[in-house]
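hey so u asked for the seq, here:
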Amino acid sequence: MPYFKDGAEVEQYLGGVFRKAADTPEGEKLAAADIDLQVYYSDPDAKVLIKMRQPKLEVVDGGENEDADVKLYMPSDIGDKFWRGEYNLAVGLAKGQVKAKGPVAKILKLVPLTKPLFPMYREMVAEKDGAAA
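ran it, structure tokens below
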């Protein structure tokens, strides 16, 4: 059974971590990347557009940019595992569990910037985890 009950929850948590990060030093560093990241989640389906552009990181739940610099396709559960610090994105790409279009090297350079956000995500899902237990 998937961790998220529906696409709205995927957007709330997996998009939410970027929204929360926008006002942090890490969010400023991500905004400096000057790319649009389009993430397509499955099971349940959702899409999140993350505009990593100055002056501030912006998240568009349900947003879509056909011309996004990088597009990632993954099951929602993999997104959850990544933000918990339990999933290596580079390995997932190599194994084909995560698919990408665009300059993957750009996104892999950003992965280290996301690590300080892992505790923020775990805090966000703590209540959901408690309700599931």
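DSSP finds six helices and five strands in the chain. The two ends are 14 Å apart (CA to CA).
lmk if thats what u needed
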